[in-house]
Each structure stands twice: as C-alpha cells, then as structure tokens.
Amino acid sequence: MTIFDVHCHVYPDAIAKRAADSIGEFYQLNMHMSGTLSDLLSRGQAAGISRFVINSAAVTASRVHSINDFLIQAAASDPEHLVGFGTMHPDYENIGGELDRIRQNGLHGVKLHPDFQHFCLDDSKAIAMFEALAERGLPALIHTGDHRYPYSEPARMAKVLDKVPDLQVICAHLGGWSVWTEAWKELAGRPGVWVDTSSSLYAITPEEGADIIHRYGVDRVFFGTDYPMWAPDDELKRFMALPLTDEEREKILHANLEQFLASLK
Ligand SMILES: [Zn+2]
User: Fold this and answer.
1) How remote is the CA of residue 119 from the centroid of ligand 1, in Å?
2) How many CB atoms lie under 10 A from the CB of residue 165?
3) 103-121 pLDDT, tens digit each
4) 142 C-alpha to center of ligand 1: Å?
5) Which of 66, 115, 147, 155 is deepest in the core (most CB within 10 A)?
6) Residues 75/85, Cβ–Cβ less than 8 Å
C-alpha cells in the first residue's frame, strides 16, 4: 500500500542538527534524527512510506524567503516522492507576492507554527495572512494546540475559520496537541478542516485515537509523523495499532491526501 506522510520537517544539512535540537528543547524530547532530507527519505522508505509532504516554519518574517527557497529546491529534487509546503509569517511584508512566488515554484501550501512564530491565530495580521492564503486556494498545515501557550488554541482556529470561511487548514496533531477533546469540540465538522495524526498517538490510547478520528470523520484525517520529532517506523506502528478497518486505514494512509492535493487549484 502507498503510505503518504503529510507532516515532515526538513532543514538544510548545515543547520539541521541545531534546528532539530531546538525543537527537542521546546517539547523536552531527545532528538536522535538529523532532520535532513536524505535522513527522512532513508528512514521513511525503510518504514514503507513512499511519499512525503516536506515543510518547515519560519520563526521570524526575515527567514520566510530563504526557507521557501530551500523547500522549493528540496521538493523539486525528487517530485516523485516529495510534495513541498512553504512557510509564511503574519509580519512578512509582501505576503501575497511571496505566496504567488511559492505557488508558481511548485509548493502546495504553507506550514505555520504559532507557538514558535509567536503570533495568535486570530490576530488581525494573521487573519489578513489567512485571507491571502484562501484567495489563492493555498492550504495551511498548522500546528494547533499546546496547553502551555495561548497562540494556537483550537478556539482561535475556530474564530479564524468563522472569519475566513474559504480557508482550508490541516490542523496538526489531531486538531490540538495536548488538548485533544477541546480541539474536536471546536473543529470537527467544519468544512475547511482536516487533521493529521502526528505527535498524538504516543500520548493517547489506541481507542481514544480511533474515537478522535471518528469525531472528525475518516475522510478528514491524514497520516503524519512530524519527523524528526518521531521515527517514521514508530509513528506508523502506533497508527497501525488503532482499532480501524482496512478501508479506514487506506483512506488515512494515502487516499485522503491524494484527493486533497488533487482538489487544490
Ligand atoms: Zn510540524
């Protein structure tokens, strides 16, 4: 079976270790994978994963352009296996121009991480950024939820979707890391919402995982590992332990994401 991972972070070789270590610190995790494209491909393919959405989030607006350049180049280096998402920041000066540029250069959306990027999802500048995304039919893969910070609260995501109804978002970590129940209560059933399974299944029981997936609807869920936070084979094992039918697994492991990407303008 094709397995398609919607959530993989990659960094230029020269800074990968530093970038991965700083994420590890934020989540108090020991990062033992390098975060390079070659490491992702070798570990992922060894686990049976054949396609990967690669991304990275710019901590500051000044880094947006160079990170997007890196992702454009990385995704183009292996189009058979890689789909690229760029990044954006609400403080970026010419949001529309940069979104047009990344789209013309083959990227399919952007990755945002409000807790690293220090903006609240429903800030007025962020709303303007989401409007620019929606106008272009570009989806955002967004880190949502962290019980320690207010930035990416699911309730704020819900407010954004009320204000920008055409926006398509993939809310990572089953809609809200560490706040899973609050997340599905706010976000399940909304037409612009998809979620991924990354960085969640280690913290909840397989029954809870399947229950949350069913709250969103099996058609609304993508498999993701959040590499290099987690090893692809470990995340895949956690996913396969969920009490789901083969048909449900097939959808989440690749069919939903293929359909989603094909539907983008
Ligand atoms: Zn992420």
Assistant:
1) 16
2) 11
3) 999 999 999 999 999 999 9
4) 7
5) 115
6) no
Domains of the chain by start residue, with CATH: 4-263 (3.20.20.140)
- Report the alpha-carbon distance of residue 175 to residue 158 in Å, rounded: 11
Average pLDDT, the chain: 96
Nearest alpha carbon to residue 201 among 185, 169, 225: 225
pLDDT at 1: 86
Q: Is the pLDDT of residue 33 over 90?
A: no
Ligand 1 centroid–CA 226 distance in Å is 6
Query: For residue 57, how far is its CA from the centre of ligand 1 (angstroms)?
Result: 8
Q: What is the DSSP letter of 33?
A: S
User: What's the CA-to-centroid distance between 144 and ligand 1, angstroms?
Assistant: 9
Tell me the average pLDDT across 15-22: 83
pLDDT at 215 > cutoff 80: yes
CA of 243 to the centre of ligand 1 (A): 25
